[in-house]
């Protein structure tokens, strides 16, 4: 592994000259991360669902307004054969180089375990775990021979806890934490850092049902030491850190961003 460069601290966080491939950036945490990475100097390739893909999306426009290059690749992550084409398409769009992969896309299905359908199970596992494996393997095949790269996986508090009525999500995110460590064990010596970010309770569309349930909202809110739910912007700093030279010796870590939930 290359050592952390001996340069002034602000330079450690610069992403100038870096190309990022990011999933799940149409809204919420992913959008905030994509824009933050562009603000740090990176050029961005967005993975967008065909039904929502647009060169005029808010995320696309925000990145373009910063003067950064922004491209998009269309794919429904439930279509695993199509997922296999994302990385080659992104390489072509970005001039043959991807330096950073951010796996932020995810879906949620809620139901008591005794009623949870096989279709819901497969959809959640495929999007939240298998698509990440496919993209990460492709990234590794590109990055390892070049001896440089960063992969950032978005895990969850349910990487550590079981949750309620979300058996597939908990299984996928638990496995994603282990996948993050497994890839780090193999690729750290090749100068490719693989780490995860584990969001706590964040006010996004995915948590809409919880936010609309007064009892669960009170129970969760009372347990967060920070005294508030998180916002997408709370991930700007962590994702820039893990994408930059500032985290050169950070390998296989699951960085919890949760307002203190796990420490309580």
From TrEMBL:
Top-rank taxon, per record: Eukaryota
Keyword Metal-binding applies: no
SMART domains listed in its UniProt record: PKS_KR
Cross-referenced Pfam families: adh_short_C2
Keyword presence, Oxidoreductase: yes
Annotated ranges, domain Ketoreductase: 18-190
GO molecular function: oxidoreductase activity, acting on the CH-OH group of donors, NAD or NADP as acceptor
Entry's transmembrane regions: none
Sorted UniProt keywords: NADP, Oxidoreductase
PROSITE patterns: ADH_SHORT (PS00061)
InterPro entries: KR_dom, NAD(P)-bd_dom_sf, Sc_DH/Rdtase_CS, SDR_fam
Family: Belongs to the short-chain dehydrogenases/reductases (SDR) family.
Protein name, per record: Ketoreductase domain-containing protein
């Amino acid at each position: 592994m290359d050592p952390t460069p001996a340069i002034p601290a602000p330079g450690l966080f610069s992403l100038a000259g870096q190309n990022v491939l990011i999933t799940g950036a149409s809204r919420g945490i992913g959008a905030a991360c994509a824009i933050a990475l562009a603000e740090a100097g990176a050029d961005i390739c967005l993975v967008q669902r065909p039904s929502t893909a647009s060169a005029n999306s808010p995320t696309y426009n925000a990145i373009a307004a910063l003067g950064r290059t922004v491209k998009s690749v269309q794919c429904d992550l439930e279509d695993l054969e199509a997922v296999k084409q994302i990385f080659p398409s992104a390489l072509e769009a970005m001039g043959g180089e991807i330096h950073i992969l951010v796996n932020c896309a995810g879906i949620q299905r809620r139901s008591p375990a005794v009623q949870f359908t096989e279709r819901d199970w497969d959809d959640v596992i495929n999007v939240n775990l298998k698509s990440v494996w496919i993209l990460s393997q492709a990234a590794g095949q590109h990055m390892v021979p070049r001896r440089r790269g960063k992969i950032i996986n978005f895990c969850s508090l349910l990487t550590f806890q079981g949750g309620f009525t979300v058996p597939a999500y908990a299984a996928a995110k638990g496995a994603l934490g282990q996948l993050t460590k497994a890839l780090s064990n193999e690729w750290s010596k090749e100068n490719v850092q693989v780490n995860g970010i584990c969001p706590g309770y964040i006010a996004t569309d995915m948590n809409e049902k919880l936010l609309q349930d007064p009892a669960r909202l009170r129970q969760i809110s009372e347990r967060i030491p920070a005294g508030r739910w998180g916002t997408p912007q709370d991930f700007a700093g962590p994702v820039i850190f893990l994408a930059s030279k500032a985290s050169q010796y950070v390998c296989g870590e699951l960085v919890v961003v949760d307002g203190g939930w796990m420490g309580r």
